[in-house]
Design a protein that fits this description.
This protein is of the alpha/beta class. The chain has helices at about 5-15, 40-50, 115-130; strands at about 20-25, 30-35, 55-65, 80-85, 90-100, 105-110, 130-135, 160-165, 170-175.
C-alpha cells in the first residue's frame, strides 16, 4: 500500500470512528464499508470533514452478491456502492453498504448529501430493487413502468417475464407472457481434416 493510500485510510478511519466496519486497499484504491444504519451520517462526515472533503458523488450503483465467485454466500445479498471524489485533496474513495434485508433491500437516500444521487438511486431501484428511504421520486428510470421484476438481479430470468409488442388490430401496445422458445444458438463449426495444416 502506498503512503498516499495509507494516509487516506487513516483520515477516513479517524473521521468515521465506530461507523467504519472495514477498510480494504486493493489495486490502488480504498474501499470502506459502513452499516446501513450509519450510511447517511457517514456520507455527511465524508463530505464535510476538512481532511476528506468528498464533495462529489461520481457514481452510485448496486450489486447482487448471489452466487458471487461461485461460492456460497455469507452475509447480505445486496450492496449499494458509492464512488466519491475529493477535488480539494485529489482523492477517490469507494464506500460500500450492505442492505440488511435480502427480501426487501432498503438504505437511506443520499440526495440531501449529494443531489447527484437522485437518478443513480432511481437506476439502482429499477435494476436491482433497492429502495432508497426518503427519495422524493423513486420510480423506474430505464425500464417501462409496467415492467415486472428487476433485470440485474441474478435470479431474474434471461428472457424476462413479459414481452411488449404493438398490436395493429387493437392499435396499441400490448403485454403478453414471453413466447421465446429456449434453444441453443451457438453456431456449428465444420472443419475439414486438413484445417490449419497448410494442405488443401
Amino acid at each position: 500500500m502506498t503512503e498516499r493510500l495509507a494516509s487516506l485510510e487513516r483520515d477516513v478511519a479517524a473521521a468515521l470512528g465506530t461507523r467504519l466496519v472495514r477498510a480494504v486497499a486493493d489495486r490502488g484504491e480504498l474501499t470502506v464499508e459502513v452499516a446501513a444504519a450509519d450510511l447517511r451520517e457517514a456520507a455527511r462526515v465524508l463530505r464535510d470533514d476538512e481532511a476528506l472533503a468528498f464533495s462529489t458523488l461520481v457514481d452510485l450503483c448496486a450489486n447482487d452478491y448471489e452466487g458471487y465467485a461461485q461460492a456460497e454466500r455469507k452475509g447480505p445479498r445486496f450492496a449499494v456502492v458509492l464512488h466519491l471524489l475529493s477535488i480539494r485533496h485529489n482523492r477517490r474513495l469507494r464506500v460500500k453498504c450492505f442492505c440488511p434485508d435480502d427480501g426487501f433491500p432498503v438504505v437511506d437516500s443520499l440526495i440531501d448529501v449529494w443531489p447527484a444521487a437522485n437518478w443513480y438511486e432511481r437506476e439502482a431501484f429499477d435494476l436491482y430493487g433497492v429502495v432508497f428511504e426518503g427519495h422524493p421520486d423513486l420510480r423506474r428510470i430505464l425500464t417501462d413502468y409496467g415492467f415486472m421484476g428487476h433485470p440485474f438481479r441474478k435470479d431474474f430470468p434471461i428472457s424476462g417475464h413479459v414481452e411488449m409488442r404493438y398490436d395493429p388490430v387493437q392499435k396499441r401496445v400490448v403485454y403478453q407472457p414471453v413466447t421465446i422458445e429456449p434453444r441453443e444458438i451457438v453456431p456449428r463449426v465444420v472443419r475439414e481434416d486438413s484445417y490449419g495444416t497448410g494442405k488443401g
